[in-house]
Specification:
Order of helices and strands of chain A: HEHEEEEEEEEEEEEEHEEEEE
Largest sheet of chain A: 14 strands, antiparallel, barrel
Low-confidence stretches of chain A: 1-20
Strand order of the largest sheet of chain A: 2-4-5-7-8-9-10-13-14-15-16-17-18-19
Largest interface: A-B, 74 and 47 residues
Number of helices of chain A: 3
CATH architecture of chain A: Beta Barrel
Oligomer: heterodimer
CATH class of chain A: Mainly Beta
Number of strands of chain A: 19
Shape of chain B: elongated
Distance between the termini of chain A: 9 Å
Structural class of chain A: mainly beta
Number of domains of chain B: 2
Largest sheet of chain B: 6 strands, antiparallel
Strand content of chain B: 35-45%
Radius of gyration of chain B: 34 Å
Structural class of chain B: mainly beta
Low-confidence stretches of chain B: none
CATH topology of chain A: Porin
Chain lengths: 380, 410
């Protein structure tokens, strides 16, 4: 119970800040999408996301949580963004995932509350221009800032069925807001700076089902499907427009090569093109369907005991949903590695991942990112 | 063995705590700014800045006179053939009694020892040297209604009392002229004048045109004073020396050819002082959704505005609290100022973004201001502007504003 309360406290602490990594490619559309990966899944390039019990992606994987577990992830990141206007070196820290859940005693069910990022909208853009006012030419410096995004609060239940059928379902509240501000400074100080701000709020609901089943021998298969309805976007509490949210289909395979080595791969497909018409009608550029393919492995030094350590490695490749320029869909590729250990006879865990991601859109925009995720977990 | 395991566990717990705290600490530092080209890298529709020219309320502007009476300002003006206006000054002192008080209830006649006149210089053109201030005896019948010709006709050598050579180095200074012996007759009130004397002032600097400003009767520290030092005709010799000091009861400036604006023009300043009441109109699209970046009231002078070098004047806009025409109460603090150079013929521009911003948010505030000149009632500058009724050169409000940014364009 104390662990549950601790985890609930962490969730409350992060309620206003828990978003996934930021990216320049989250400026347009709804933001930079998140998948609810734990540090373990991130360390394998996302390849373990479908089978990892501590990730919130697949409800069916939840049955893998053996005891009540609270997790909290923090991700400092460093980014180098290049646009046609120049290069920016960026640094920020995010809290991409927090969960608490575990088995319901004396039942075949598991339950979990999770808080993860749905779409991150943290950015600050600086641009310069010149214009002529009252016959005088002058320079202007603009800054557009956004803080916030859409968060995903998940309520997940899973059932350990007979014959190795692990089935889960989740209900998702998609909510959150972005505080946007705009400033323009004129080189001629006779002009007051432009300073405007607003708040965009988003709300929606979604549902997901998933399963994980061990097939014959060392092969495990994982499948999930999710539907998110639509997001209602409000501007300063007044309804502005609706955007359809995507369906998500995912599949994964894991192969236990030996007791110490597990290899997994997965693919995720999201129908973000469903958001296109809503975004275009609202004046945006648009969106397209995305996919992500990942492959990774994990080495466990003591697979049958609480001690030891884990080494992980993986990579991924995929597309991103929101355009800067129609027809130039951004892409992402990355590699990752990580380390994990269990402490206090398995009552606590520390997992680290270090990811390098490269994003580009063939329209002159690129981004390199280095993400260091620390996951702290408690199992009373 | 157990002890070793225990210490190892606590070491890991310490690492975990440290990592957790580091994560939180790192959360406090953010550097997120990316250089971009907008569009296409920015959300929204781009910042739209518009510069527009708004008319004032047609026919809503008027000049009203009499805010500071002639001589009620802090100074009076004396000049020597200034090209745009010429000024003389008239000072009248109150009656000097024919007896002097020894005690509260004891009075005695007196014999005059000496008389002094104090004149305070407030401003001058420091580039013109050899200034001399001439003082003339004037009929006491002249008062604040006297015209320039009334005064000028008495400024003749026969009435000359004395003159003061103003050192070239003097900027502000008190000058005292003493009269003794036979000179006392020059300053002695004439029979039938009830003990009053009047002084007329003119200034000269060779053939150069210039002017000076001296303290008026309303000036708290620079008022002209007339002091008489007497010996009372009283037996007690320790109490016979007495001083009678009077500040001027009238001090006026008379002006040759006062300005005569047409009804469609706006006079500011002059004597008695005038103010221009200006009424504005703001379209709803600016009141509701525009962010004011710059707001400039532009007023075109009818002709060049001249001033005395070394005595700068300032045009001042005063926000009106309640529009009641000429008697509208105004804010004590100015909404905008425009320092006038010695000679200015360009458009006068007042920057008033804060005032327009206030009008946007305070819907009940009257959209009107007074335009006045400082020092009011004591300035050599006499601006006249075209009004809204003028066929050309009407005043305008030039507003640069930003439209509401289209944040919701994703």
């Amino acid at each position: 119970m104390r662990a549950f309360l601790f985890g609930a406290g962490l969730l409350a602490l992060t309620a206003s800040t828990a978003v996934a990594q930021s990216s320049f490619f989250g400026v347009r559309g709804l933001g930079f999408p998140g998948y609810g990966y734990s540090a373990r899944a991130r360390a394998t390039g996302g390849a373990f996301g479908m089978i990892d019990p501590e990730s919130s992606l697949n409800p069916g994987a939840l049955v893998g949580v053996p005891v009540i577990t609270a997790t909290f992830n923090a991700t400092p990141e460093w980014r180098w963004t290049t646009t046609p206007a120049g290069t920016g070196n960026l640094r920020d820290t995010r809290f991409p995932l927090a969960t608490i859940g575990g088995p319901i005693p004396r039942t075949p069910f598991n339950f979990r509350i999770s808080y993860s990022s749905y779409a991150d909208k943290d950015f600050a853009l600086a641009s310069g221009d010149s214009l002529i006012l009252r016959g005088e030419s002058m320079q202007v410096a603009d800054t557009i800032k956004s803080t916030g995004g859409m968060a995903d609060i998940g309520l997940t239940g899973a059932w350990r069925g007979p014959g190795g059928w692990n089935i889960g379902a989740a209900f998702h509240f998609i909510t959150g807001s972005s505080r946007l501000s705009l400033k323009r400074q004129f080189s001629d100080t006779a002009y007051l700076p432009v300073a405007q701000q607003t708040q965009l709020s988003a709300s929606g609901i979604g549902g997901a089902i998933g399963l994980v089943r061990r097939l014959a021998g060392p092969i495990t298969i994982a499948l999930m499907a999710r539907a998110d309805g639509h997001a209602s976007i409000d501007v300063d509490s007044a309804h502005a427009f609706n955007v359809d949210l995507p369906y998500t289909l995912g599949g994964g395979l894991a192969w236990r090569v030996s007791p110490k080595l597990l290899i997994a791969g997965q693919g995720i497909y999201q129908t973000w093109s469903s958001a296109n018409s809503g975004l275009v009608q609202a004046g945006g550029v648009g969106s397209a369907d995305t996919y992500q393919a990942s492959l990774g492995w994990e080495y466990a030094s003591h697979p049958r005991g609480p001690g030891g350590y884990f080494l992980r490695f993986g990579g991924h490749y995929g597309t991103l949903p929101f355009y800067f320029i129609q027809g130039y869909q951004p892409r992402e590729a990355g590699i990752a590695g990580g380390y994990g250990t269990r402490l206090g006879r398995g009552r606590a865990g520390l997992d680290f991942s270090l990811e390098y991601a490269y994003r580009w859109d063939n329209a002159g925009n690129t981004e390199k990112a280095l993400l260091f995720t620390t996951q702290f977990s408690v199992r009373p | 063995m157990a002890s070793s395991k225990g210490s190892s566990r606590w070491r890991w717990v310490a690492i975990a705590k440290l990592t957790f705290v580091m994560g939180l600490a790192l959360a406090c530092t953010e550097e997120l700014t990316t250089p971009v080209k907008c569009p296409p890298n920015c959300p929204g529709s781009g910042i739209v800045v518009i510069d527009t020219l708004l008319d004032l309320v047609p026919g809503g502007d008027t000049s009203f006179s009499g805010y500071v009476g002639n001589g009620d300002g802090s100074g009076i003006l004396v000049s020597n053939n200034l090209p745009w206006a010429d000024f003389r000054a008239l000072i009248r002192f109150p009656p000097r009694p024919d007896s002097v008080a020894i005690n509260v209830d004891t009075f005695a006649t007196y014999t005059i020892d000496s008389v002094s006149l104090l004149i305070s210089l407030q401003a001058r053109d420091s580039t013109v040297g050899g200034l001399r201030l001439f003082m003339y005896r004037m009929p006491v019948s002249l008062d604040s209604t006297a015209s320039f010709n009334d005064v000028e006709s008495e400024l003749i050598p026969a009435n000359l009392i004395d003159s003061i050579l103003i050192p070239d180095s003097a900027r502000t200074q008190d000058f005292t002229v003493m009269f003794k012996g036979t000179d006392l007759a020059k300053i002695e009130p004439a029979p039938g004048d009830s003990g009053r004397i009047s002084i007329g002032l003119r200034v000269a600097a060779g053939s150069r045109q210039t002017g000076i400003r001296i303290g008026s009767r309303s000036s708290p520290t620079d008022a002209p004073t007339w002091t008489t030092f007497v010996k009372a005709n009283f037996p007690d010799s320790t109490r016979i020396r007495r001083t009678m000091l009077f500040t001027a009861e009238i001090s006026v400036t008379v002006m040759a050819n006062p300005p005569s604006p047409t009804p469609d023009q706006l006079l500011v300043g002059s004597l008695p002082s005038s103010r221009a009441l200006l009424r504005f109109q703001l379209p709803e699209y600016i009141r509701d959704s525009a962010q004011i970046l710059r707001a400039t009231l532009e007023m075109v002078p009818v002709g060049p505005i001249y001033g005395l070098n070394g005595d700068p004047a300032t045009l001042q806009l005063m926000q009106i609290l309640s529009d009641q025409g000429a008697k509208s109460p105004n804010q004590a603090l100015s909404a905008a100022v425009f320092p006038l150079p010695n000679s200015y013929s360009d458009t006068v521009r007042f920057e008033i973004p804060q005032l327009i911003g206030l009008w946007k948010t305070t819907k009940t505030a009257p959209l009107a201001v007074f335009l006045r000149i400082i020092p009011e009632g004591a300035s050599f500058s006499i601006p006249i502007f075209y009004g809204t009724r003028s066929p050309s050169g009407q005043p305008h409000l030039r507003i640069t504003y930003a439209k509401s940014f289209d944040f919701q364009r994703p």
